[in-house]
Each structure stands twice: as C-alpha cells, then as structure tokens.
C-alpha cells in the first residue's frame, strides 16, 4: 500500500492517480520531484484495494489503530459487524432496513454506539471502515 501520512489515507495502485494527488494541496509537487516519486511508486508491487484485508475487531476489542491513517469519529452497529458509518442518520437507516428495528424505539438502549474508525482508501467506492 502507498500510505500518504500527510493526507491520512492510501493511494490507489494506479499511476494515473499519483500525479494528481501529489500536485494538489498539501503536496504541491512538480517537475523532477514529482517524476522521481512516480517512478519510485511504479517500482513497488502494490495490492489492489479489493485485495487489502481490513483489520477486524476481535474478542479483545477494537483493532489497533494504524499509524499514519486518519482516525475519524463514527458509529458502530451493535447487531452486526458490517454496520460502520460516520453518520448517525445512516446508522439509523441501517438499523431500520437491515435489522427491521425502528431507530426511534431505541432512545434508551440504542443498537449502535459511538466509535473511532479508520479506512485505507478515501474514495467513496473503496471505503471499508474498521473500528480502532
């Protein structure tokens, strides 16, 4: 994986992604420096996003946070492992649709809890959160 610790997420293993990422804020790279990094990145054997395993929460609790990846506030479903999101509204929809539970009936004992999340990739279609 190519982890950009400045941005807090990984870059896709595609050369057409690297230059635009490195040209924009906060990097602002150009010329020889940009070319050198692209050549260096091209020399790596990088995993496809779908082949990257996300850490799972074990019996001992959440996964250990990965240094360099951004940590964000989120919500975790208490019924299933797939229910992870940054939006409380989305969590309420999840509980309603997936578990057929009306969120309004869970004011005293909700089926979700606040948590900290990480994901390797920031692109919407590649986001797979894990609890840390």
UniProtKB/TrEMBL annotation:
Top-level taxonomic group: Eukaryota
Record-linked InterPro entries: OrsD
Name by which UniProt lists this protein: C2H2-type domain-containing protein
